[in-house]
Amino acid sequence: MIIETNNSTYSKSSSMAFAVVTSLLEIVEKQLLQPNSSLVLYSREMVVSLSKKLCFLQAFLEEFGAKTYNSEANRESLEAEILDVAIEAESKVESELGEVYVVANRGDCVVSACQKLHQTLQQVVKDFEGIEVKILMEKKNTNSLVIGSSPESSAQTYLTGSVGSITGNNTLEPENSGIVGFSKDIKKITYRLIRLPSVKRDVLTLVGLGGIGKTTLANMVYTYPSVSSYFRIRAWTVVSKEHNVKEMLVCLLGCIVPMTSEISNKDEAQLAGQLRKSLMGHRYLIVLDDVWTTAAWDAIRGCFPDNSNGSRILLTTRFTEVAVYTSGYIHAMKVQTQDDSWKLFSRKVFGLKQSVPQEYKSLGKRIIDGCYGLPLAIVAMAGLLATVKGSIEIWRDVAESLYAMDSADNRISRILSLSYNYLPTHLKACLLYFGVFREDSDIPVKKLISLWVAEGFLKSKKKYKSMEKLAESYLHDLINRSLVQANELSIDGKIKSCKVHDRLHEFCMREAKKENFLSVINENHAQEACRWISFQSRNWPITRASYENYTFHKIRSIIYSGNNDLYISKCRLVYPHLKLLRVLDLSLVKYSHNMPSGIADLIHLRYLALNTIGSLYKFRLFKLQNLQTLAICSWMEGYPLQLPFGILDLQQLRHLHLERKSSQCLPSLVRGNVLTLYWLRVGSLYEKPNFRVVPNLKELGIYVEGEMTPSCLESLVHLRRLEKLKFDMGRVERFYLPSGFPPNIKKLTFRYTFLPWEEMSIIGQLPNLEVLKLKDFAFCG
Q1: Distance (Å, rounded) from C-alpha 745 to C-alpha 739?
Q2: Of 118, 581, 627, 681, which is least surrounded by CB within 10 A?
Q3: Residues spanned by the domain of 342
């Protein structure tokens, strides 16, 4: 699909073709060209040739996505053909490769299965040869395409900015840095909150268009020093379009008391009672962000007692009728003035200290006029234009595009579309992937990165030592472009969680659905078989009956992103209909039947997250040869899971997250892929761990169970890349510090270790330590 805006032509779907080609290239390079005892390759040269053709297509699609001028109309059909052929090739190759793995797991001869795979690869090479010829003919006819084998094409460099691409930049601005134009609003709101004589519980509402800055203003008031010191209790929750009362209650309680599984497992009535009791007698400030309906307010208003002490509730909403219904004081948000708009825009693009070149100033003024004074639109445009400060042509084109837009509400959608169109091709699928999560979700960065890696979005670059580092650079790029928000930072300033604005979330869902890549399954939407399934209903959606008219081979990911109060006693994965599944994230589902049947047969699975109870000891994990991330926990406190041994022997495993008492022992052979291990069990009943078998570990949690010897952890010193280390204790009389620590430790956590204070001097000598956490009797005294 091509969208024309004045003089420019943008490829909206080249991102999807690029994502599929990149995914297939990863399969070829990681599974076909790497040593594998299951595979008999009859022609390695043919596989190498396929790899080169896919690299050629990658370069073309990057050039195609970056080419914003003089694009020929027939390139649309060429790109669509690449997408169709790549999807078909990916499915065929993975299907035949899967058959090889199945036969190998049975212990049978793999020759016949490998022959079929070889024939499929031959046909795939022919298909891509045909496309390659068409591309070269296009190049010859137009004399405008520049396609090379280097990772960065000239047009892509031009699009992302000629003076230092943003990609890889780890310098992030604080979320509210550069925000202007709210000083008067803050003064008015803080007066109503803390200086108004009224002692009765009062409700204030901020109302205005989506993207006008309601949440930003509410957050600035919420964290304002005089406000934070005035209220004994402050709590914040996001309500969203599809409000969930229990989730709101849990979120508010989490701001007041330490969250435990006991609290999260309570029902709505119990949670409401506990919240009301926690607020009784205290002066509190409650923020209910993004309220869509009066029903959402009615469902929770009874939890907020009137203590006659000046407690306040602050709401934000787009809808005047909600504001009138809920509030005694309505603050109507106004758009930014032209001066404030220019300050916000110029700071984001050129920085505080840089002067704006004259040739860009007049264009910049036209651009902010086209943003209608909406901060979301202004920062989105600034995020785009900060990357193309060397291209006056793109500035002119953006100014002309904005001038042609109509209403303010539609303007936001068009501006977000414009920002997306100008994104580098490799970032587009990563951005659209935010659509699989629920609106206003707080997304853990480590989880997001693991999902991006599992989906095969990342184009390998030699300068990055790991795919995780490359994915992190992608995320930082999107944040610096003001498309993704850094939501929570760790103590050392790294991003722990992120989110996208609800207007951008709407855009991501709409575009991904338009490309037939995303299906959102809930009570209001029919089921479709797309590449990504966002499962939000209360019934298990993948059954033969529900999908009898659809082709299952399209589905690569099933992610449950609904509320975390869903219990499923039993579900079947209707294998082999989901045999190409890569991602299965049921971490928010409370499953009560050990392991969903059929998982062991999902041999292409790369990411598996479960929340279950029961024994998994007989689960045949060894069949999941492509598993990269495994996260399994028990949702019932006091019932640790029984897991099979040898999980760390999975060859592709990179991240393992288990509960402390369900922890694992080290692998029998060297596993250089393992980067994260929570938790490793050590103690007298287990062999002394040899950490040389996991030489590239970056994060490690050690759970000590049973008596330990003074030399138990002596081989820790060999983990030269380890940056984060946690110790926790079970029933142990004494904990011994290791004789030597890994040299690059940055974060160190102790819990229940009862160390004497004099041993703090040993920790104080660690040269790179940045964060030290002492929890629950870490030291004596």
Answers
A1: 14
A2: 118
A3: 338-421
